[in-house]
Amino acid sequence: MRHQIVDGTGRVKILLENDYPIDSIFDTINERVKTLINKLNSCSAEKTNNNLPKERVKWFSILYLEEISNKFKNAINGVCHRVSFFSLNKLNQFIKVHKDPLNNELKRNVVYKINCRDCDVSYVGQTRRKLKTRLSEHKKHIHSKTSTHSVITEHRLQNHDFDWQNVEILDVKNYHNKRLILEMMHINRQTNGLNLQHDTIGLNHAYIEILNKL
């Protein structure tokens, strides 16, 4: 503060040396001081007001009915601060957003069943990939140059073929182990299944007893 006073005194001295009237100098200083004091008082009052609890705005919501709602609003005017309306008609009653159903062949993490078109034989399998990818492998296997054939290929070599267009999805499960259990359960439930016996070797006998009772 002392430095500010010394600095101000020096400025007054400079103004006097340059022939400024002393009355004009101090009138200007007084106006400047008043302005600063007013600013300080204004800031102090604003801080005090901010510490006071603000009055909560009260709302009263009513169902909007033509003519009646506005009359009701006028009747309670002054009782509540603000009145709002709501409607029973919601947009979701008129606008329906649905995802297109996913084609079975595009589904993943499935347990599936393929039926023979020429007899009652069926095959149950599982895959984490798209079903169409796994079905494509089943179809192409008959053309592979290998001495060992899959059970599906062996059956097709007997002049039978499968209903590739109507493959059933028996279950959808993201977890591999759960999907394997479901696969074994569905294999066991087949009437005339192509699956090899070891395909169900991991299925606990307790499950088999339960499935036999279903």
Automatic annotation (TrEMBL):
<dbReference type="InterPro" id="IPR035901">
    <property type="entry name" value="GIY-YIG_endonuc_sf"/>
</dbReference>
<dbReference type="Pfam" id="PF01541">
    <property type="entry name" value="GIY-YIG"/>
</dbReference>
<protein>
    <recommendedName>
        <fullName>GIY-YIG domain-containing protein</fullName>
    </recommendedName>
</protein>
<dbReference type="InterPro" id="IPR000305">
    <property type="entry name" value="GIY-YIG_endonuc"/>
</dbReference>
<feature type="domain" description="GIY-YIG">
    <location>
        <begin position="107"/>
        <end position="196"/>
    </location>
</feature>
